[in-house]
Amino acid sequence: MPRINAAAALQISMLLFALPAQYFISQWYGTDSAERIQRTERLIAASWSISTRSYLSPDAWADRLKLWLSKTRTCLYVELLILHFRNWYYGENKTKSGDNEAKPHSYFAESTHVHSPKPEYIKFRVGQVIIHRRFGYSGVIVGWDVKANTPEEQLQLRYPPVKQDLKDTPHYRILINKANGFGKSSAYVREEEITVITGLEVYHPDMETYFSGYDGSKYIMQPWLKKLYPHD
Question: Where is the signal peptide (predicted)?
């Protein structure tokens, strides 16, 4: 049943009080009883006509029901959009069936293909806490590539001809510890630039997206991330 809003309630109240009010007015100002009866009859007819058009008409209630349903559908649509966004953001749909191949342009260790088998020369694992040897910031590994996977223009800038061999070494995506105040939220680094430490927790707004907890030596991967790195 559609809700009666404040405006509708006010109209009903006015209609309910209009009949007795006008009746008493007609009692005082009418010329005779016959005229008062006619005025009363006209008032009743007018009030009934307004009521049937506004509240006793199936068409009127149908219009109100349509409006209520349209508002309900809008709310449900918004809720579905929010749910879809949360599923996408937290990675719950990242490893659906048929999604085991790397997506195009998935750079910086963000590919959604399953990293299996894991090459023996990949030293570090997702969930391990690291320290950058040069810049000193700490962070946690959230992905790795067997070699640099960046857009070609960035690859050329980062690795000039004299350092071409470095692009073929393992690279890791790092969430940088906010406690360091480094000014960046993530980094993509070579294996030689980092070293693993234990007993240090990392603070970053995206930690719960990737990990469910910390066991003192490494972070525990969320199920969707564990599917991508089953050997880490």
Answer: 1-20
